[in-house]
Input
Amino acid sequence: GQSLEQPSEVTAVEGAIVQINCTYQTSGFYGLSWYQQHDGGAPTFLSYNALDGLEETGRFSSFLSRSDSYGYLLLQELQMKDSASYFCAVRDQGGKLIFGQGTELSVKP
Amino acid sequence: GAVVSQHPSWVICKSGTSVKIECRSLDFQATTMFWYRQFPKQSLMLMATSNEGSKATYEQGVEKDKFLINHASLTLSTLTVTSAHPEDSSFYICSARDRTSGGVRSYNEQFFGPGTRLTVL
Output
């Protein structure tokens, strides 16, 4: 089976840095993706890690450690518009995505 | 680029009726499309993988006779919820994977549609 764990909610203030962790247990692993979803909207792709290390895209960075079955999404210089749900997802060999339960991020002024 | 549309964006129907949801890749060809269901404040649950020209592959616990999937072309997949009941009320989201393995678009990325909110009375 496959399971992913991430915190259910995180609160931070504007301008701060927040890290959302994700641990996974999967029978096959072909990469860890992160998606952002605003209320009532579609998930939007943020990042993908297939290999260990840090991937940086603007204010967002994602990290993967395959030996620890662990990854995180780092959001810097938080803005109010970053308030959303963030999902980690594991990709299997067939390209299917298995999503975590999501972390609801609330950014306060 | 990489736009996926869904139609309708929302639908309200009576119990017992069937509802068809369309998923289209507008500017790329998708050999594979995925259908998800999401209940409020919950995660996306993969229902089935739709492959162009072949039968869909359903996840465990998803009734194939209730959720009919057709992927007739490289840009269109449809999900039909047959004999819908109130417990089928949910947010249905499709995603599409670009068939090109190189170039500008990452092979690894799935592009999601805006979702269809189904309410069954």
In short: The radius of gyration of chain B is 14 Å. Chain B touches chain A through 22 residues (CB under 8 Å).
